[in-house]
Amino acid sequence: AQTVTQSQPEMSVQEAETVTLSCTYDTSESDYYLFWYKQPPSRQMILVIRQEAYKQQNATENRFSVNFQKAAKSFSLKISDSQLGDAAMYFCAYRSAMASYGKLTFGQGTILTVHP
Amino acid sequence: GAGVSQTPSNKVTEKGKYVELRCDPISGHTALYWYRQSLGQGPEFLIYFQGTGAADDSGLPNDRFFAVRPEGSVSTLKIQRTERGDSAVYLCASSLDGTAPLHFGNGTRLTVT
Predict the structure, then answer these.
(1) Is B10 on the interface with A (CB under 8 A)?
(2) Nearest residue of B to residue A95, measured between CA atoms
(3) What is the pLDDT of residues B65-87, one digit of tens each?
(4) DSSP conformational letter for A81
(5) What is the CA angle B34-B23-A87, rounded to 5?
(6) For the segment B16-51, what is each residue's pLDDT rounded down to a tens digit?
(7) Do residues B21 and B13 make contact, with C-beta atoms less than 8 angstroms apart?
(8) How far apart are CA B5 and CA A103, in angstroms?
(9) Cis, peptide link before residue B8, omega less than 30° from 0
(10) Disruptive mutation site among B4, B29, B48, B90 for chain A (greatest number of A CBs within 10 Å)
(11) N or C terminus of chain B: which is more exposed, having fewer CB within 10 Å?
C-alpha cells in the first residue's frame, strides 16, 4: 500500500515571503499522480496543483510550484509571495495510475499560518 | 447546483444510534466519492460510485457503514450502531466522470457522544 508522509505539522510564513511544505511518499509503482490540496476552515478541499509522475518538468500554478524528485519520492510545495488567504491546512495526496481518479491517499496535513 | 452540497453540516448523535449523511453532487456529475477525515488527519477514501453502482467500496471500515446512490445523483452514507470512533468529518466529492477533477463539498461533522 502507498503511504504519504508530511513531517511538518505546522509552518508559518510572513506575508509576501516564500514557504516550502514537505511531502514524501512510498510506492512501488512507476506511474502515479501527486497532488497538493488546501483545506480552509470551511472544510472544502481545494486542488492547488497536480503532478504526473511521468513528467520530469515540475508543475507550476501562478504562485504555487512543486519540486518533484521521483527517485527520492519527494514532492514539496513552494508558495511564493505568500498572502493572508493562503492560510489553511495543506494536504499532499497520491493516486495510483491504476486506481479510479478520485481514490486518493492523503498525508496528515500541514497547518500553514501567514503573518501580516 | 453551484457546488457539492452536504447535509447536515453538523450532526450529533448518541452511541448506538443510526445516522444518514446526504450528498448532493454537482448536476451531471456521474462519479461520486465519500471520504472520512478524523481529527488531525488527512481524508481517507471510503467508497466510489460511478452512476448508481459502487465501483469501489474497499475503504468502508466495516459492515456498519453502507452507502447508496439509487438514481445516480444524490448519495446517502448510512452508519448503523454508531460508535465514538466514528466521530469525524465526512467529505463527499463529485466529478464529471471517472477521469475529471474532483469537486469537494464542505463535509458533515459527525459527533458521537
Answers:
(1) no
(2) B45
(3) 999 999 999 999 999 999 999 99
(4) S
(5) 70
(6) 999 999 999 999 999 999 999 999 999 999 999 999
(7) no
(8) 20
(9) yes
(10) B48
(11) N
Burial A56-84 (b: 16+ CB within 10 A, else e): eeebeeeebbbebeeeebebbbbbeebee
User: Which residues have a Cβ under 8 Å from the Cβ of A67 and sit 6 or more positions away?
Assistant: A20, A58, A74, A75, A76, A78
The C-alpha angle A81, A62, A3, rounded to 5 degrees, equals: 95
> Residue B90: its chain A contacts at CB < 8 A?
none
Residue in A17, A11, A66, A15 with CA at minimum distance from that of residue A37: A66
**Which residue of B106, B108, B110 is the best one to mutate when testing the A interface, meaning the one whose CB has the most A CBs within 10 A?**
B106
Amino acid at B86: D
DSSP string over A40-80: -TT---EEEEEEETT--SPPEETTEEEEEETTTTEEEEEE-
Residue A106: its chain B contacts at CB < 8 A?
42-44
Q: Which residues of B touch A42 (CB under 8 A)?
A: 106
Closest-CA residue of B relative to A42 is B106
A62 Cβ contact partners less than 8 Å away, ≥ 6 residues apart: none
